[in-house]
Each structure stands twice: as structure tokens, then as C-alpha cells.
Batch of 2 targets.
Target 1
Amino acid sequence: MNKHSIIHRPTDNYAYACANGSVNIMIQTQKGDCESIKLIHGDPYDWSNKEWKNVKTPMRKTGTDQFYDYWHVVIKPPYRRLRYGFELNDGRKSIYFGEGGFSDEKPKVTDFYFAIPFVHASDAFQPPSWVKDTVWYQIFPERFANGNLENDPKGTLKWGSREPKPDNFFGGDLQGVIDHISYLKELGITGIYFTPIFKAYSNHKYDTIDYLEIDPQFGDKETLKQLVKVCHDNGIKVMLDAVFNHSGFYFPQFQDVVEKGQASEYKDWFHIHEFPLSFEPKPNYDTFAFTPYMPKLNTQNEEVRNYLLNVGRYWVEEFDIDGWRLDVANEVDHEFWRDFHRVVKGIKPDLYILGEIWHDAMPWLRGDQFDAVMNYPFTRNILDLFAKETIDCQHFVENMTAVIHKYPSPVNANAFNLVGSHDTPRVLNECAGDKRKVRQILTFLLTFIGTPCIYYGDEIGMDGGGDPGCRKCMIWDETEQDRQLFEHVQKLIALRKEQPLLANEGTLSFLPVKSNSNCFAFMKEKEDKKILVVFNLSKQAESFQFPALFNRQTPIDLWTGNKLHDKQIQLEAKGFSILEFSN
Ligand code: ARE
Ligand code: CA
């Protein structure tokens, strides 16, 4: 057995407690190295005749990536305390692994074992229960719909008449969203993520001037109240974007520093390296990236902290919003986010907190900060396989398995999955215009675990490159919309609602990919019901053989409603299938 590649620590994705008191343990071992693993566990104080009482529970292999097998088990320690270790068997002999290292004999002292001293519900990761069933829709307000010509900024261009630029305006606003609520309802989405709506200079509004005002180009507080009400009346949650890493250049507090320099009472609100301020070639104060227009806020400063926490509180308390998306969340200190969590959840316990983090985000997902992060590692894998074709099915399944095993499963169930945003090229462009690929990608997005988000316009086949190309005006002329694609997305959302296994019920596993196969499948199962989602990456039609485990079950094709009588299914080139198996 290769001891070097046996990995476990009693924390994070490897060991976490749920609010119901159960504990989830995961271990990873070299691919193919272990035949079986058992968890040895017991209460640390439970002894009789000077012997520690413990039991063995078999672990289940939940996935394999390029290098590792992953094993899981869930147990519920009766007294909420736990000592545990692993019995690993390679088919010939067993070895024992605990905090004390490796042993050929089963150690008798509890100190050898890993410890979970006590399971506290308050320490568990507990996102709001509504989140995992939500289908999000992302709106960039300047470009979704213009519902009020009177608030249009000077120089507003005719809707959709030009390519989007970093500095042009088309007049989109909050009234526009209210006016099109029936469109969103028809599509079936249940949550909207708005990029920033507070008073700011640019068209994207990430350079805030006033955190406590709606940008007049988008409407006023009354319009937001109405919007929230209309959304709630239609079963749609509302999430706003909080830009707390930095302010805008024209934020009055920063302007004060620009004017008064060292004498400004706000000089400690930012991270100024030296006075006087300079802006070129790089600013001499901390910023978002290197843009002088976005001075970084000093969240170590108590005044700043209180100011921002009040902003967090204000929009929840006064406007009843349901979520905060936190911009550049990874560059703000953890202590601030812990305070933020306490404040906003103190007002509305089922408020959702989504951090914008593009990389491994475990430190923010331990229950004391965020409920989810924007799952860009998911995006990357999907685009590499379906759109860019730079990896094959085998590689994709391995990558996805690795991504999933980086987090506890409740984190995965609530992950904010996306295939594009206002920061990335549109999915249609990534697919070089191939709508079959787009359909596959949206199918994967809406049937996998996590909570899917659709970027406005992707559902009607809009195109656009990276920022600012991906920020075109929404197309409202139905003859210009891809209505077939719209119906595809609509049908997927409806199916996801009908079949909880397509959302976050049950357990997920990938089927082993046959060598050189252009098809892959994942399965969700609960009790005796299974749903299989299959994709054909090939440019030709291919048949996909059901594994032996399905032999006695007659599948129903959930997409067409047909009963299948074969032990295989024929998939179109770049096609997919969603199948239900039950006894
Ligand atoms: C403007 C121009 C861009 C130019 C950029 C360079 O439009 O063409 O590339 O300046 O300075 C907002 C606006 C942008 C604007 C930007 C700066 O929406 O249009 O860009 O402000 O003025 C990283 C961060 C991540 C950030 C992305 C953009 O980690 O937090 O970069 N995303 C948020 C918002 C943006 C917003 C800002 C932050 C600033 O969602 O819309 O931009 O408030 C990798 C890395 C990621 C990196 C990602 C993209 O994969 O892992 O860390 O994200 O690439 O670069
Ligand atoms: Ca307008």
C-alpha cells in the first residue's frame, strides 16, 4: 500500500459535522491501491475493562480522479464525541491509520486516533434551505431592459444599436426588470442575481459613489421596493451585489483624501502608501487590480467596518432582499466577513451570502462566512470538455470528481454553478456558435448538483466575447431570439422542479468511462430510483450501453416521455439523454 498518498485530516472536506449531529468522514488513497476501507470509531470516554469500545463501519468509494480514490462514510456519534481511524485493506493485508500515523496492528490507545471532540450544531455549515432548489438568473441592469426613458443618462444610445463598450450606456434600469417579470416567470427561474445597482460612475457600477442610494439611472428606492415585491409575489428571490473590497474613485470619502491628502479624516479608510497621491503608471495606494478608479477599502479600520456593515444591514432590513453577492470577496479579511455574516443573518437568518471567489475557497465555506462561492472551477471544466474540446470525457470526469471532493457535500449542493458571467465570454462564443454544444452545457448545468445560474440572454442564444462584449443589450424582439433554445432551458428548469433527483436530492456518482469512449454519464440515486444523465461528445451518433446494474429496470426517457425497451440508448451527435430507472 502506498502510504505516501493516504490523505486525511480531521477538518474541512475530510471531516465535517452536519447540523443534525452526523459526521461525514472522507479519506483519499492512491488510485486502485485499496480494496476496502473501514472506519474504526467510538466515543473517547466509552471504556470497559480497560478497553476502548469501538466499532467498524465500511466506507464507500465515491469517486476516482487521475491519482486518487475517494472514500466516504457518514456516522452519528450518540454522544456527539468521536475518535476514529482507518483500517485500510489492499486485498492482502490491513494497516491502521490515525493521528498517530500508521500501524500494522490495531492500536488500543485512543490517542492514536483522530478526534472530533464535540459536534456543535452552531459550528455546522448551514446555508438557507431554499438555496439548493433555486435556479438563478444573472442580470446586468444597464443591459437587461429599459423601462423608464426618463432616467436615461446623457448620451444614452438606442437599445442594442451598438456594441457594448467600457463607457457606453443603453438606459437599462430596474423598471425594465419589473416590466419583464412575466418573461422570467415563464422561463421558470426562481432567483435573480443583480450586478451592482448603487450609485456609481460607470455602466457596470462596480465603482461605488454612494452605497446607500440606488443609482438614479436605474431608478430609486421606491422602484427597488416594487421590484422586490414583484419578485417575491412571483416566487423569485433577489440578490444584490456588494462591492466592499474597494470603493469608486468618486466615493466622497476617497475624494476627500484626493483633495486634502494627509490632512483628510478619511486617510485611514484606504491603504495609501505615501502622500501626495499619484495615479500613474501605477497608483501609490492599494486598489482592485491596478485600476486607480477602485481604491481598496481598509476593512481593518473600525469606521470602515461599521460603515460597510451598516450597508449590509440597511438593504436587508429596509428592502427585504434575500441575498448578497460579495465582489472580490477573496481579497477582504476573514474577520470582516465573520462580522458581516453575524450582522446580516442576525436580521434575516435565511439570507444567502455568495462570495465571488474563482479558486479553491474552503476557508470561506466553514459555516462562519459564506454559503457559497461562484463555482468557476466547474465552469472551466465544462467549457474545456464541451466547448473547447481540450479534454476528453475521462479527463473531465476525473477533474469534476476532484472539484467535488475538495468540498463537503452540503457545500456542493449549494455551489453557485455558472457557465459564464459578465466577466467572461458568453457560452455561445466559447462554443464557436455550435448550438448543440450550448444545449449540452445548459443540460449539464441544470441537471448536476449545485445551484445553476443562467446569464441573461444565454437562454435565447445571445453572443458576445469577454468583457465588455458579453454585456450586450438583451434582445426582446422574439423573431430575433432563439426560441428553441429558450424552450430547451424552460423544459430543463421544469424537469428539475419535477424531479428532485435532478436538483440536489440523492447521491451523485459518475459511471466509469469506457476507454476511448466519447460518452460519459452521471447518476443520481435515492432509494430504488435512479436518474442517469448521458452525454455524447462525438461528432457522430453513438450508442450508450446501460451498465449491468440497470438490467432489471425499464428506463423512461424523461426528455421525450418514452419508455425504452433496449439495454442501450442511441444518442445524436453532441446529444444527451436524461433517463429514469425505477423498479
Ligand atoms: C475593466 C475593463 C477590462 C479590463 C479591466 C482591467 O473593462 O476590460 O480587463 O478593467 O483593469 C469591474 C468591471 C470591469 C472592469 C473592472 C476594473 O465589471 O468591466 O474591467 O471593474 O475596472 C479577478 C477578480 C474578480 C473580478 C475579476 C474581473 O478576482 O474579483 O478579476 N471580478 C469582479 C466583478 C467584475 C468587476 C470587479 C470585480 C471589480 O465580477 O465585474 O469588474 O469590482 C482568473 C482569476 C480571477 C480573475 C479572473 C478574471 O481566472 O483566477 O481571480 O478575477 O481570472 O480576470
Ligand atoms: Ca432607463
Target 2
Amino acid sequence: VLATQPPCVLLNDGNKMPMIALGTGRGTAKETDTLDDVRNAVFWAIEAGYRHIDTAAVYGDEEQVGQGIADAIAKGIVTRDQLFITTKLWNDKHARDQVVPALKESLSRLGLEYVDLFLIHFPIATKEDGSPDNIDYLDTWKGMEEAKQLGLTTSIGVSNFNISQIDRLLANSNVPPAVNEFEVNPTLTQEPLVYHCMSHNIAVMAYSPFGFLVSRNRPDAPPPKYDDPIIGAIAAKYGKSPGQVVLRFAIERGLVPIPKSTNQKRIAENINVFDFELSAEEIAAIASFNKNVRVIEIDGWKDYPNYPF
Ligand code: NDP
């Protein structure tokens, strides 16, 4: 258990977002987790000091996330207002008048009155059968602004938006996005998109923060792997694990990493990253692994309107 709470990022709407979130999306690595593992993971995370949980309608686990939160509140570990809960709107609910009802359904599954952050999961709109739909994300955003106005979410933001999509949204909205959540790790450092978001006061949440450090069942995976000597030497110097070094790399850049784990020991390990700092040389050494290779590919949507990658 941490002696102090993790630090927060101040969002452009005045809300404060804790600098590390537990990921609850499963299925990008070797995962065989059950939904009950998510309930336990959320409870263990809060017990270990996490105050920020990342979920999404499409993960199918909002109910279990809500149960883990309820368990922690029932045990007196936290109160609701000390937690920061993020969920996301799926691609088939992009019509303006679908947004508020979709968030209400998420809230009902979570057992919450409000979330702290609601994100458009992708700029791509689909019909329920997964085929492309041509709904402009600017219309979706109007629904997001309505959700915020109703108090169903404190902050609103986006995920997987590229630079020109961010610019178009900023130029055509009343409320700017508080957050853009996208993939960042040593092999996908995303300097231009990170810089662009930060210079417009949009906080960045980094998904798949371990990149290929952990098994992705990809024989072509680029370094660094878990046994990488450069990462290993930095880890040994600070008495930390390779995973902790890579999470610290994100935090040093001002990003909010979202490590996923359902293992109690690794959940605790992943938040224990606020008692050491990397040097500028070490940060540069880790950044030099960049290959602009993605863990999360969405090639199936390549021909859909607003494909962001
Ligand atoms: P991560 O980089 O978090 O990697 C997760 C994998 O790493 C799991 O197999 C986990 O296994 C393992 N792991 C966790 N901690 C350690 C550790 N300390 N040492 C070694 N292995 C470890 O990738 P994800 O792709 O899962 O992304 C994280 C989260 O980001 C998701 O859960 C989701 O919330 C979000 N996300 C959002 C997306 C979006 O479009 N907005 C897309 C993808 C992800 P184990 O559980 O056994 O510990």
C-alpha cells in the first residue's frame, strides 16, 4: 500500500485526474481472465492505492468494475468522491441522441451516479452490425457536451484521435476535450501527437503502456522485451522491475499510463513507481526503441470514414 496517493494531472476543465489508472480491457495479450478476475483486480488496485480505473462499454466488464468499486467502498477503503472512473462510448452509439442514453446504461452497469471521465472510444462510427456508419464525430461530441451538462460525467474527452481530428474538434466545439487516450510505449513513443495534445492543454492517457515488453504473441515483436539488457540495467540501478521502468518512462513524460493486470502482486508493483526518477539520458535511451509499431491494430477499419492511424 502506498504511503501517499499518486499525484494528479490538472485537466483543462479544472478536474484532477490521478496519474496512473488500472486498465480493465482484456484480450490484447495472452489473457484468459474471467470477468470475476476484474472485480478482484479493481478491489486489489484500490487497496494498493489506485484511485483511477479505466473501463469501456465494449469491454463488457463495467458490472464487475462497479462490483470491485462497491467492495472497496463497503470495506471503508475509499469513498466515491476519492475515485476517478473513466468509461467510453462505443462506435455504434455515435448519433448525438444516443450518447446520453449510452452513458446512462454504462452508469447503471457500473452502479454509479456519474463517471469522472467519458471518452469517445474511436473517431470511427459503425452500425450495430459493425459496418461503417457516416456519423461525424462533431455530432457525437455535441452529445458528449450534453452528458457533461447533465452531470453524468465530470469531464469529457476522446480516444484514438489523430492530430487533424483533434484540431477539427477544437475548432468546432464549445467544450474542448480534456483528454486524448491513445497507445504510447517504448516502441510507439508518439512524440508529435503527445506534443500536440499537451500544447493544447489536453491530457494524455497512455494505453498498452508496456508495449512489447510483455508477451503479445507476436513473433515479430520489436525490442524491448522483458529481458532487454538496457531496460534491465536501468531497473537494476533503481532496484525496480523492467515493467516499473517502462511505466516511469510514461510518467516522466507527463502521461497517465493505464497498466492492465489482474494479478494482485503485479497490480501492486505497477503503482509503486512514484519513488524514483529516470535521468534525461535514460529517458532518451528508452525513447530510442521507437519503431512506430502498434500493439493495437485496427486494420479491419482501414476503409471506414475517420480511420485515425
Ligand atoms: P498493457 O501494456 O497494460 O499490458 C497488459 C499485459 O501486461 C497483461 O498481459 C498483464 O498480465 C501484463 N502485465 C501487467 N503488469 C505486468 C508487470 N508488472 N510485469 C509483467 N507483465 C505485466 O496493455 P493493454 O493492451 O492491456 O492496455 C492497458 C489498458 O489500456 C487496457 O486494459 C485498457 O483499459 C486500455 N486500452 C485502451 C484502448 C483504447 O482504444 N482506448 C486500447 C487498448 C487498451 P497480468 O494481467 O497477468 O498481470
